[in-house]
TrEMBL record:
Species name: Spectribacter hydrogenoxidans
Cited PANTHER family: CYTOKININ RIBOSIDE 5'-MONOPHOSPHATE PHOSPHORIBOHYDROLASE, LYSINE DECARBOXYLASE-LIKE PROTEIN
The family this protein is said to belong to: Belongs to the LOG family.
Phylogenetic lineage: Bacteria, Pseudomonadati, Pseudomonadota, Gammaproteobacteria, Salinisphaerales
Keywords: Cytokinin biosynthesis, Hydrolase
Designated name of the protein: Cytokinin riboside 5'-monophosphate phosphoribohydrolase
Amino acid sequence: MTKSYKNPEFMMGPEARPLRILAEYLEPQERLQAQQVNRALIFFGSARLKPGRHDPVNESVDYYDQARLLAARLARWTIDTHTPGQRYFICTGGGPGIMEAANRGAADVDRSLSMGLNISLPHEQSANPYLSEPLNFEFHYFFMRKFWFMNVAHALIIFPGGFGTMDELFEVLTLIQTGKQRRMPVILYGSEFWRRLINFDVFVEMGLISQDDRELIHMVDHVNEAFEVLRAALPDVESEA
């Protein structure tokens, strides 16, 4: 006799899908509470932007290096400014490229602030070596992973990326626009890339979004610029008490 919850064939079958979904809600919830994770700054961007790979249009731009520097500066700022239960964690998708760069920057200052919500994929995605082990998550379901990103997010910093990055960007903007997610700053790093890719002003001109929606988005080109936008936009501890 085998108990149903100890039966691997049943637990991995279609009938037990609700149990697996629930597990991806309950286990991260317990771990995040134990680590006092209440707020995070989310870095999105391509897994393919590795160290030393420069922007083909502007050879002076190394997005990996800049993501690392920005994450380190934010980690230092929150350690100096916030008590442990109020600190902003640096959270990424946990993989290589821009995700690794941001986690590496956080680990340069304090590895305990470096968090990754990984996803099991057939290629590209494996956990980078700069994550805090208690905050190294792996998900099967994309929608549960996105739920936890948004549960802790207080700002998004989005570097150039592919389909996955675009999916994350527009889902977040839709959630904020429809009131399903708190308003937060959305930083698009690398204005040349973003302006070539998406003309956000056309949405406003055609009446498809409001000017308020457009003002959610801040395009920046430098670490200092991104940091100042975030510092001005993020609420202080007292205002959230």
